[in-house]
Structures are given as structure tokens and as C-alpha cells.
Specification:
Structural class: alpha/beta
Mean pLDDT: 88
Number of helices: 23
Low-confidence stretches: 1-7, 216-220
Distance between the termini: 42 Å
Radius of gyration: 30 Å
Strand order of the largest sheet: 1-10-3-6-2
Largest sheet: 5 strands, mixed
Number of domains: 3
Helix content: 40-55%
Strand content: 5-15%
């Protein structure tokens, strides 16, 4: 920060404000949500719990807002409600409390004439006046005791809802009881107040730093959204949106399910920053670092594109086939520094990938070891050093064949790369399947059971009892295989890693023998696959997989 910025000490003013007044400030454009905030992400249960706290008078936390007369781009909606900023004067921007304010504004003020807000929640909530519980519209339809939350702050709407209770409930005592509960509900909402902390006189750096420190713990923001807040400039660069564009680009290539943390780490690598950085407020509040972000993101986008080209050449056609997301980070940094490696260097890089995949290297190291390994990849890229790898021992034996099919295991992902390399054919016998596209669309359901049930547990859960199937296939694959005739059946079986003798077991409905013979054939075939890629053989034929992949279903 500059000396001028440091001299602009913020003034902090606490007050207690009625809920209705806060919502009024939002609707008239005096209180806004800055664009660097993440969008509305609360679930239905979160919304119902918040309303329950209001009804019972429980604290829901304070709101923190930043007052400024400067121009800051706001969100056009708060929850489902369109908001127009006041044209002139001081505005307050919510730094902490967006999800709560959006919930209260949306549930208390959303009406049918408003445009669909594109959220995966129902804003039309009701309070069961008998149970005094909040709920969405019941499947059996609305009853007189279901009071619409959206009418609680509107005098005319509230009176109309009360008249409906009187008209529909014949029992006067029951109607009076419901009206008494409605009065209690309305008073609870109208009299509810919460602490409002206003920060003024500070500059943008002060505001986003406060915002970042508030959101440092828990899962309130994703790391890229945090960095976006810290690097926010009006009408300029917004990191989260740039990463959205990047993920949209690579989604067409099968990598759209990649966790957002990995492109962010690739950007940090491109800036020569720590890829495991956590304190983004300290890391990126410096203007000289913020100025480097656009260039770093552009370079990272090109590097990730080259890395995916390389991965696809190795048969990795989906993020679900990639054993570790960090492999893409390391490869992107390599190709950022060395877009066109020599054949020798490219061959060594390929061996590095297969060794780290089959040995589960990234699953067994700490952040310090990973940083040292990244330095080795940079050395290979910058200097063509064929002896660069020390952290990654290229002669380390592979992990054994996984005894269970567990998509949380990177070793299972490595096995799937071998299975995909066989060119699996459609179970209809026509053409080949596209494992990458199947994973991108169906995730872990891209593979079907060969035998649905009835096997010993160690065979039922074995990878040998899974195979790629057509996207519209339902049930066990055994039935589809049994319907195929020669020579199509032989071709299909071979393409899915079944040995020649599997056909006899299939025809005799010998299910256990079928999976056993395929298991041994897959282990041998995968070992040959490893050998061709310079990976040392495992010391054991089979072993329990470790849940160590970057993502899980």
C-alpha cells in the first residue's frame, strides 16, 4: 500500500438497525453488494434456518458494510430482487452478510411478477402457524395455516393473508389461534434488529482487506473468489470471472470438472508465487503483484491449453482420468516456460507423468516436497536438465493393482487410463466408446458393473467387475455381452480387457470365473502398459487403494 492509503484510517461506526430498515436501504439502492462478492450460494435448509432464528429472536450475526462515495460496480440483484444503485451520494457496500441479506430480502419481498432469478432455491416460503416452522410449499398443497412469508412486511398483504384465514377456517377458535400466531410471526420479523458495523473513510484496499480477513476461515469463499476481492478494480480485472472463462474453454475438451483451485495454483506458479498460498490478503494486496495478474492469467490459459494437448496425446481425455490435478498445474508451468520441448525432454516429462500416476506420488508428499518437485519441473523446462528429478524417483515401484474400485484413488484413475487405452467398443457391437466424454458427462457412472450382484465381496468390488458402457446403458453389462454374436463378441471382449477364455465362462454363465480370469488378465496387461512407459513394476500384484485423488464424487 502507498503512504497515502495507509494514512486513510477507516472510521468504524456500530449501530443496531431494524431488519425492515436494512432491507429498505437495499431496495432503494443505498446498500449494495459489490461485484467482487461471490453470488448467492445458500441452500434451502440454510434459508429456513435463518428465518427460524429471526422468529425466535436468535442473533444471526452482524453485517459489515463499507461506505464510500467512490464508484464500485455492484451486483444487479440481491437474491432474486433487482437493485438499482442510487445515482449520487454515499453508498454502503456489504462486505459481510450478503447471503443473509439476500435470503431475507428474497423471502420477504419476492413476488410472482418478478423475473425468475435463476437460483436453485424456492423463494416462496411459508410458516406453518400451528407448528411455527418454515417450509416450502407442501406437496399436498397449501392449507390455511401456511402463512406466506412474503406478506409479512407488507401491511396490505398481511391483512389480506389474515382475511383468507378467517374466510377458510370455519372454526372461529381455530381461526383466532392461527391469527394470533400470525401476529406473533409478523411482530418477530418487524421488531427484529441486528448489529450493523459501518466502515467509512477507508479506500478500496482497506475494504477488500477487511473482507478477505473476515472470509479467511471456513468454506465461505473459494480461493479464486478471495483473490478476486483482493485484486478488484472498477471495470477492470476480475480473477473469478477469468477462471470461469478458462474452465468454460477447457470444458469442451473434457476438463470442465477440474477443481478451480488448480487453475488458480497455475496462475500463482506463473507469478512465481507459492502455489499453496493461503493468506491472500498479505500475498496480493500489493499493487505491483495485482498488476501482474492479467498477464499471468493469459499466460496460464495458453499453458493449460498446451498441457491438455499433451495429456490428450497420452490418453488423458478428461479431468476424471487425470490422477492428480496438481499434475496439470506442473505441466502448465512446464509448457509456460518451454512451449516446444526437445524429443528427449518430452519423453522424460511423459515418464514423469506416468511414474507419478502409478506410484501415487502426489498423494504421499507434503507441500514442501511438492514445491521442490515443481522446481525440478522448472529446471527441466528452463535448462533441459535430464537429471532434474530427485524428489520424484523415476525408479520407484508402482503401487499394486487396486483391489477395490474407488474413484477417490489416483491409482484407480491410473488403471482407468490403461482401460481406456484398449479402445473399448460399444456394448451394442457398433463402433468405439469415448471414455473421456463418458467421464465428462457421467462422472463415476461412466463405468457399469459387469456382474450386478452375487459375487464374493472381493470380486464384486474389484475394478475387474467394472467396464465402460454406452451412455444410455442400464444395469449390468453381462446381459448386453450375452446378446452379442461372433465375431463382434470377441472384438468387444478384447477391447474391454477380457482374455480369450472369458467367452467360455460367459456362455456357461460362470460369473465368478469370468471376473477372476479378467482380473488376472488386467493385472498382466496393465503391467505391460507400465513397462512401455518406463514405470517400475509393483512389488505385489494387488493391494488396497488409497483415497488420495484431488476430487471425489
Amino acid at each position: 500500500m502507498t503512504t497515502d492509503n495507509l494514512n486513510r484510517t477507516p472510521e468504524v461506526k456500530p449501530e443496531v438497525v431494524f431488519l425492515g430498515k436494512i432491507l429498505e436501504r437495499v431496495t432503494d439502492g443505498r446498500m449494495l453488494v459489490p461485484e467482487f462478492q461471490r453470488p448467492f450460494v445458500w441452500r434451502q435448509r440454510d434459508m429456513l434456518d435463518l428465518l427460524s432464528s429471526v422468529l425466535n429472536g436468535y442473533p444471526i450475526g452482524s453485517l459489515l458494510v463499507w461506505e464510500t462515495d467512490g464508484q464500485v460496480s455492484p451486483m444487479s440483484r440481491v437474491g432474486p430482487i433487482p437493485v438499482t444503485p442510487r445515482p449520487k451520494g454515499v453508498r454502503a457496500y456489504i462486505l459481510d452478510g450478503h447471503q443473509r441479506v439476500a435470503t431475507l430480502l428474497g423471502t420477504l419481498m419476492f413476488h410472482d411478477e418478478l423475473e425468475n432469478p435463476q437460483h436453485d432455491v424456492d423463494w416462496k416460503l411459508y410458516c406453518d402457524l400451528e407448528a411455527m416452522e418454515f417450509l416450502t410449499e407442501p406437496r399436498g398443497g397449501l392449507e390455511p395455516q401456511h402463512f406466506p412469508v412474503r406478506e409479512l412486511l407488507s401491511t396490505s398483504g398481511y391483512l389480506e393473508a389474515c382475511r383468507e384465514i378467517q374466510d377458510k377456517v370455519a372454526d372461529h377458535k381455530h381461526a383466532a389461534k392461527l391469527l394470533q400466531a400470525a401476529d406473533k410471526l409478523a411482530n418477530a420479523v418487524r421488531n427484529f434488529s441486528l448489529p450493523l458495523i459501518t466502515v467509512s473513510e477507508g479506500d478500496m484496499d482497506t475494504a477488500v482487506t477487511i473482507f478477505a480477513r473476515l472470509n479467511r476461515k471456513g468454506r465461505r469463499m473459494s480461493p479464486d473468489e478471495m483473490v478476486s476481492a483482493l485484486t478488484y478494480k472498477v471495470d477492470q480485472f476480475h480473477l473469478a470471472k477469468e477462471l470461469d472463462k478458462l474452465l468454460d474453454d477447457i470444458s469442451h475438451r473434457g476438463f470442465g470438472g477440474l477443481d478451480r483451485i488448480f487453475p488458480l495454483r497455475a496462475v500463482l506458479a506463473a507469478m512465481n508465487r507459492d502455489i499453496y498460498a493461503r493468506d491472500f490478503a498479505d500475498l496480493l494486496i500489493k499493487p505491483e503483484l495485482r498488476e501482474k495478474l492479467p498477464e499471468a492469467v493469459a499466460a496460464t490459459r495458453q499453458a493449460i491449453d498446451r498441457a491438455i494437448n499433451c495429456l490428450q496425446g497420452w490418453g488423458v481425455t478428461s479431468d476424471r482420468l487425470l490422477p492428480y490435478g496438481l499434475q496439470l498445474v506442473f505441466l502448465a508451468e512446464f509448457f509456460r516456460r518451454c512451449p516446444e520441448p526437445s524429443q528427449e525432454v518430452a519423453n522424460l516429462l511423459q515418464r514423469w507423468f506416468w511414474v507419478t500416476s502409478f506410484t501415487g506420488w502426489f498423494g504421499g508428499v507434503n507441500s514442501t516436497q511438492a514445491r521442490l518437485a515443481l522446481a525440478e519441473v522448472r529446471d527441466l523446462a528452463d535448462n533441459g536438465n535430464l537429471d532434474a528429478f530427485k524428489q520424484v524417483n523415476l525408479d520407484q515401484p508402482a503401487l499394486p493393482f487396486p483391489s477395490r474400485f474407488d474413484t477417490r484413488s489416483a491409482r484407480v484413475h491410473a488403471f482407468l487410463l490403461y482401460l481406456a487405452s484398449l479402445g473399448p467398443r460399444s456394448l451394442r457391437g457398433e463402433g468405439h466408446l469415448d471414455p473421456g466424454a463418458l467421464h465428462a458427462e457421467l462422472r463415476s457412472k461412466a463405468l457399469s458393473y459387469v456382474v450386478g450382484s452375487g459375487l464374493p465381496s472381493e470380486l464384486q468390488s474389484s475394478p475387474a467387475n467394472r467396464m465402460y458402457a454406452d451412455r444410455d446403458h442400464r444395469g449390468q453389462a453381462l446381459r448386453a455381452l450375452a446378446q452379442l454374436d461372433d465375431p463382434v463378441l470377441e472384438q468387444v471382449l478384447t477391447s474391454h480387457g477380457f482374455p480369450h477364455e472369458a467367452r467360455e465362462h460367459l456362455e456357461g454363465n460362470e460369473r465368478e470365473a469370468l471376473i477372476k480370469c479378467r482380473l488376472e488378465h488386467l493385472i498382466d496387461g496393465e503391467r505391460s502398459f507400465m513397462c512401455e512407459r518406463g514405470v517400475q513394476m509393483p512389488q505385489h500384484r494387488s493391494g488396497d487403494p488409497i483415497a488420495d485423488s484431488d476430487e471425489s464424487d
